[in-house]
Amino acid sequence: MIKSDILARIRSEKVVALIRADGPSSLLECARALSAGGLNCIELTMTTPGAVEVCAEVSRALPHALIGLGTVLDDATARRGVEAGARFIVTPAMRPGVVAACHELGVPVLGGAMTPTEILASWELGVDVVKVFPAEFLGPAYIKSIKGPFPSIELMPTGGVTPENVAEFLRNGAFATAAGSALVSPKALASRDWGAITQRARQFVDAASHA
Questions:
Q1: Residue 34, phi then psi, degrees to nearest 5
Q2: What is the mean pLDDT of the segment spanning 81-94?
């Protein structure tokens, strides 16, 4: 799948499901539960031990899903992630080495930024989408405000995205959104309540469809 197709799919699915966990044992089951609920753009974070190996496992088990690797801080990790099957790379901040590696590998890179200066600098650095993080402190109105002077910059708010506000984020100009604990609660993950995670995924899908 080429970069433009990956980006088009993220845009069309509207919500990237972000999984953070203390260990790798339940991530595949969690990804299956999210997929069953209609969310097939899934980001596994490097804060989870063994994330790269799990990325490879999930990519093999769910070939229809679009698996990304997040919290990537260096180019070596980006390369390992892509080799393991990651279709996109996400950083929490501006990381020039990661951006350069993703350009070389031909995969989308979503780079974290918050202020207008950071957002513009990240875009000029070459990210495909700016991950506006943490978005919970600013809300959907911030996306609209940033799109005013920077209409061509693609923005993906992350943090604080819920079924109650996901449509508003999208209506205010977000390229897509990313949801973490509001979608995959630590309690549900710890108790392996896959039914609850599937139900929550369906709530996000339904809410995003109204944007």
A1: -65, -45
A2: 97
Domain boundaries, the chain: 3-208
The length of the chain in residues reads 211
CATH of domain 3-208: 3.20.20.70
Inter-axis angle of helices 75-83 and 51-61, nearest 10: 30
Instruction: Spell out the residues 6+ positions from residue 199 whose beta carbon is closer than 8 angstroms to its own.
Output: 37
Q: In the predicted model, is pLDDT for residue 22 greater than 90?
A: no
Residues 6+ apart with CB under 8 A from 4: none
Tokens of 41: 């753009």
Active site positions, annotated: 43, 131
Exposed / middle / buried, residue 87 (Cβ in 10 Å: 0-12, 13-18, 19+): buried
